[in-house]
Specification:
By secondary structure, the protein is an alpha/beta fold. The protein has helices at residues 8-23, 46-52, 54-57, 63-71, 78-100, 124-135, 158-167, 172-175, 202-213, 225-236, 260-273, 287-292, 296-302, 306-310, 323-332, 337-346, 356-369, 374-390, 403-407, 409-419, 421-443, 451-463, 468-475, 479-490, 499-503, 505-523; strands at residues 114-117, 139-143, 179-183, 216-218, 245-247, 252-257, 314-317, 351-354, 398-401, 446-449, 494-497.
Amino acid sequence: MTEKEPDKTTGGLEEQLRDMFRKANVSFMMPQAGVSHAAPEPEAKPEDKDSRLKPIREFNFKPRDIRDYLDRFVVRQEDAKKVLSVAICDHYNHVRRCLEDPKLQEAEYAKHNIILLGPTGVGKTYLMRCIAKLIKVPFVKADATKFSETGYVGHDVEDLVRDLVKAADNDIDLAQYGIVYLDEIDKIAAQPAAAGRDVSGRGVQINLLKLMEETDVSLFSQTDLLGQMQAVMDMQRGKSPAKRTINTRHILFIVSGAFDKLSEQVKHRVDTSQIGFTPEGGRERQETEYLRIALTRDFIDYGFEPEFIGRLPIRVVCDPLSAEDLEQVMQHSEGSILSQYRADFEGYGIKLGMTPAAVKAIANRAYGEKTGARGLMTVLERVLRNYKYELPSTPTKSFELNEKVVENPEAELGNLLKNGEQFRRAAMKDEVKGFADRFQAEQGIRLAFTNGAVDAILAGAMAANQTVSAFCAARFHDLEYGLKLISRNTGKASFCISEKIVNNPGEELSRRIARSFKRQEAEG
């Protein structure tokens, strides 16, 4: 019986695949007919799928439940919390019903996509992040300015959906019910006067429109070579082909922006259409009040496509934070920046306290930054930066941030260090002893520092603005070689370190080495 000749076509393909995988440093084995090189991975059981989707299948939050949860983290924004709570409940109640009755999937349904308007630092992103955490759905946040129309330099908007799958640990069934949050959306408003094609404005809006309505998004972009190689390897292992697309029908899209120029546009429309109109009480309207009365035509005039803004039916305006609001943020919101700074100091064993006057002073300064709650970190960092640097190297176990520290942090830090000088010197002396202990453990040679030597080390470390350990390591870098040489000549294993060695280690060590050689010659 003659041996069957190999298929030249198959052999050529095999060699091409081997070469591709060899360059990628991946092992390759061509599957043979009737032979399975690896058992196919079992598909997810129905109970596993139900477990992943359990939070959505059992969604039973009421709008007040979500509002109460948000109150723990975000100060003010009562109107925004109310609108968002209702929109979230409506959306996920519909998703739950669709899971219970798949026939509802085919029914027409207007999705509750949301647009958030308001100045920076008022909690727009934090609101949505907290909601996603509460209802346990995947959440992705991105900046709209990084996207461009497909085919141009920049990111593709479909990457948002792919990132959502990654956030769901590649669980497509869960990712298709997630939340996509796109910030700085006002920055992609098309500029009417712009010459040429606006690839980062109108084109992005049109591509986002497709996602917000309903479309199937490929999980592998055209440039995703790793994804394509993974698909080939899965095929080689006998693995069933993975799902390659995700549908955006039930993905909730939220966009946000400051829209500072939109308020001016609305103000101009209102003032020109209502000549002689005076707001209630004779006061001037705030910017956010104009945003609340913005019409769809105002967004279109601003540079948005009518179809795009029409797919964002839920419009929420967040109010700017006052100095009093920032005080509430510091004192009462969970996970506030103040609690973060307290945790930072506790990492060094230091308890950070704060007086009511200091809280008020910091809030007033943060309000002057005009960046909302983000201004709190700016102020706290400016005030406490050097305290974080200096206090961990001192015996300080507690520190109270008062109004004087806020007003003149450097002077108060100097006073604090000066008042604790006695304790600081005691801690530094312990560091000298620690250096001697480490030297003995590593070199087998005992060091005994005189009082004059300890004082000289402390003075040198303070003058050089170094820790005692760093000062000793730099000052005594030749000590190991010199003392071992002396020990070999004299047999001594213990040495007294005097003030002379601290002040001039090279000269004093050379003198002792020479003396040890003379002694060795005399004894010889």
